Structure formats: C-alpha cells, structure tokens
Amino acid sequence: MRVRNALAVAAAAVALGTGITATPAAADTRGGTSATAWTPTTTLNNGPIRECYAASCDEVWRPGPGETVRWSHYAINSSGNRWYYVQYVFGNGIPKTVYGWIYCDNVTAPC
Predict the structure, then answer these.
(1) Is position 111 within any domain?
(2) pLDDT in the model for residue 92
(3) In the 8-state DSSP scheme, what is residue 15?
(4) How far apart are CA 8 and CA 31, in angstroms?
(5) Mean pLDDT, the chain, as a whole number?
(6) CA 14 from chain center: how many Å?
(7) What percent of the chain has pLDDT over 90?
(8) Per-residue confidence (pLDDT) for residue 36, from 0 to 100
(9) Count of domains in the chain?
(10) Residue 35 in domain
C-alpha cells in the first residue's frame, strides 16, 4: 500500500509541475471507457510500467507480452497520449504488486 500511495503522490507532483492532468475514464468527454474498479487488459509487447504518464519517466516494472494487468483510470498527457494507471501482480509463492502507468499502445485496452 505504501508503494501505491507513493506513486500516487509522485504522479500528482509531476502533474502539478508539468500541467498534466489525470482524467478518470468516466469523466472523459471523448467517450472513454469507465473502469468501475480494476479492469483487466493484456500487455501486447514488452512495454514498461512507468512512475508517471510520460515516456521520460522511470520504469517501475516491465511485464512480458501476454501478461494481465488491471487498470483503474487513464490520463492524457501533454503530447495527447493516453496512459493507463495499472496494477500488476506477479511472483511465484509470494506475490508482488506494482502500480504505475502504461502507454495505451502496450495493452489491449482502447487507445
């Protein structure tokens, strides 16, 4: 839970500093899909999960192709790109969960 809170605080700080705003899918005026909780989607390639919704942000984790991640909302960055806020659970025996942002072209969710 600490990692999730830290990521949320970091994303908010980046958004405030850059003028980027996160938009819950339900409020998107361009017809975005609403996730009522965590909606599963599948990774298409080896695209990374990042700390914020820009390609320049640090990587949190890099799931392989065909992995299931779950998204709760998305944001449109200043370049007009959609990024999903995801959770990814992995590990044998002792599961680990990471949270972060993944670019829409890296998952099966709509871009």
Answers:
(1) no
(2) 85
(3) H
(4) 24
(5) 79
(6) 14
(7) 63
(8) 63
(9) 1
(10) yes
Distances in Å between the alpha carbon of 78 and those of 52, 82, 88? Answer: 12, 10, 25
pLDDT score for 77: 96
Cβ atoms of residues 58 and 100 within 8 Å: no
pTM of the predicted model as reported, rounded to 2 decimal places: 0.69
The domain containing residue 102 runs over which residues?
2-106
* Strands 68-76 vs 49-50: parallel, antiparallel or unpaired: unpaired
Cα Rg for the chain, rounded, in angstroms?
13
Decide if 95 is inside a domain.
Answer: yes
Identify whether 32 is part of a domain.
Answer: yes
Helix (H, G, I), strand (E, B) or coil at 58: coil
SS (H, E, C) 27-57: HCCCCCCCCCCCEEEEECCCCCEECCCCCCC
Task: Mark residue 73 as left, alpha or beta (left: phi above 0; alpha: psi -120 to 50; beta: remaining).
Answer: beta
pLDDT tens for 35-80 read: 568 999 999 999 999 999 999 999 999 999 999 999 999 999 999 9
- At residue 41, what are phi and psi to the nearest 5 degrees? -145, 165
Residue whose entry in the numeric block shows the structure tokens 């959770």: 87
